[in-house]
UniProtKB/TrEMBL annotation:
It comes from the Eukaryota. InterPro entries: Cyt_P450, Cyt_P450_E_grp-I, Cyt_P450_sf, Cytochrome_P450_fam2. The lineage of its organism: Eukaryota, Metazoa, Chordata, Craniata, Vertebrata. Heme binds at residue 436. This is unspecific monooxygenase. It comes from Vombatus ursinus (Common wombat). GO terms for molecular function: heme binding; iron ion binding; oxidoreductase activity, acting on paired donors, with incorporation or reduction of molecular oxygen, reduced flavin or flavoprotein as one donor, and incorporation of one atom of oxygen. Belongs to the cytochrome P450 family.
């Protein structure tokens, strides 16, 4: 057959595929969006190194609610405070499903707290919230644990003797120990080799999840899963973490006292015993391991990354750090440990911590949601199961609520009198029924760790502050700060 005829037939076939695709695309009254190509969808219109920025640019053309095809899957993007609030709060139940995140689906198979759905999610979330509150979440008892861990963190940082150090593992160890005390009733020494290995796994997982390769995996999971790539390392790391948790579970089973539950695992095991006659029970060993791993991972990485990113920002802006030192001296002094009651008297410090969370935009697109039923949203009919992407970046970087959002400015959270100013646009923990269950603990940790460290140390960069780059090195699932070194100089010696 003549080559020109083959080319023509190929072109006709492509046009037919596009035509069929577009006809299917219109079903269900989906919002408008860029025209997808067969198989790859809109992937050519997205920068895999910074998908969220690409989505924000598309919103300028297609509006606050539009359709995006990631590979063969159709998703609805919510852009801006109004659209996200209307969906996740105004239609909270309908938008409370967990959307497809293929690499995680492969790893946890819909178990646990973070990626479960339906009745499983409702039961596990209800149980987790109740149990965490019983163990002091948001109460004085957990505050005392955080304060004690903050003191341990200070002692660990003193060992650096003011010399340049990479703070990644040390800053991550503190929030990890807090969640370990709740989940395992145990904290680890900062030099414990098994503990250090776990921290390395958690840090590596965040880096991998934020890589362009995982964006490709999530778009073409059935193909990419069988190819060589770093997703295999991610899967292995999660298996190692699960094995660690399962080992802790078996230890708990051996000495469980139903009259004296010590931690989250004990309470879950007791719930399993209560429901052992129920064949449909969601309280199984598999769900216990995954839920514990969800709490362990989420309770460590979000806070530790925020701390690490926050100190990098403070190195770049020493005039901001100086004002925090002054507020600490004025409100707390040097002879007592910071406590949560101090926060209301420290508007500038509080504003800086909020601005760190806003500016770093840790999880730009949140974790994908899904609609749990066919839903009429605005003028569109969204079918049950459709993935929803609430773009938190579009709220945290709203230029009307936060003038010059690309600039780090604590005054975004201060009024004209210097008082702390709350904002409905402050959504680093997401919003609605899928908002982070550990928000109150994370906020407590951030305040107490930041203030305790700055009460005891002066921060010194190893390069000129003007040369410090605070641009994230990965912009996928998480924003990951660049690696850096810092000197923690004892305040008593400066």
């Amino acid at each position: 057959m003549d080559s020109s005829v083959v080319t023509a037939l190929g072109l006709v076939l492509c046009l037919l595929l596009i035509s069929v695709w577009r006809r299917g695309y219109g079903k269900g009254k989906f919002p408008p969006g860029p025209t997808p190509l067969p198989i790859i969808g809109n992937m050519l219109q997205l920068d895999t190194k910074n998908i969220n920025k690409s989505i924000c640019l598309l919103a300028k053309t297609y509006g606050p609610v539009f359709t995006l095809c990631l590979g063969s899957e159709r998703a609805i993007v919510l852009h801006g405070h109004k659209a996200i609030k209307e969906a996740l709060i105004g239609h909270g139940d309908a938008f409370a499903g967990r959307g497809s995140f293929p690499v995680s689906d492969t790893i946890n198979k819909g178990l646990g707290l973070l990626f479960s759905n339906g009745e499983r999610w409702k039961q596990i979330r209800r149980f987790s919230l109740m149990t965490l509150r019983n163990f002091g979440m948001g109460k004085r008892s957990i505050e005392e644990q955080v304060q004690e861990e903050a003191k341990c963190l200070v002692e660990e940082l003193k060992k650096t003797k003011g010399l340049p150090c990479d703070p990644t593992i040390t800053l991550g160890s503190a929030p990890c120990n807090v969640i370990c005390s709740v989940v395992f009733q145990k904290r680890f020494d900062y030099q414990d080799q098994k503990f250090l290995y776990l921290m390395e796994l958690l840090n590596e997982n965040v880096r991998i999840l934020s890589s362009p390769w995982i964006q490709v995996y999530n778009s073409f999971p059935s193909l990419v899963h069988y190819l060589p790539g770093i997703h295999h390392k991610l899967i292995k790391n999660f298996h190692d973490l699960s094995a660690f948790v399962l080992e802790r579970v078996k230890e708990h089973q051996a000495i469980l006292d139903v009259n004296d539950p010590r931690d989250f695992i004990d309470c879950f095991l007791m719930k399993m015993e209560q429901e052992k006659q129920n064949p449909q029970s969601e309280f199984t060993i598999e769900n216990l391991v995954q839920t514990t791993l969800d709490l362990f991972g989420a309770g460590t990485e979000t806070t530790s990354t925020t701390l690490r990113y926050g100190f990098l920002i403070l190195l770049k802006y020493p005039h901001i750090t100086k004002k925090i030192h002054e507020e600490i001296d004025q409100v707390i002094g040097q002879n007592q440990s910071p406590s949560m009651k101090d926060r209301s008297n420290m508007p500038y410090t509080n504003a800086v911590i909020n601005e760190i969370q806003r500016y770093i935009d840790l999880v730009p697109a949140s974790v994908p949601h899904a609609v749990t039923e066919d839903i009429q949203f605005r003028q569109y009919l969204i079918p049950k199961g459709t993935t929803i992407i609430p773009l938190l970046t579009s709220v945290l970087y709203d230029n009307e609520e936060f003038p010059n959002p690309d600039q780090f400015d604590p005054h975004h959270f201060l009024d004209e009198r210097g008082n702390f100013k709350k904002s409905d646009y402050f959504v680093p923990f997401a919003t609605g029924k899928r908002a982070c269950v550990g928000q109150s603990l994370a906020q407590m940790e951030l305040f107490l760790f930041f203030t305790t460290i700055l009460q005891n140390f002066t921060l010194k960069p190893v390069i000129d502050p003007n040369d410090i780059d605070i641009t994230p090195v990965a912009s996928g699932f998480n924003h990951v700060p660049p690696s850096y070194e810092i000197c923690f100089l004892s305040s008593k010696s400066t």
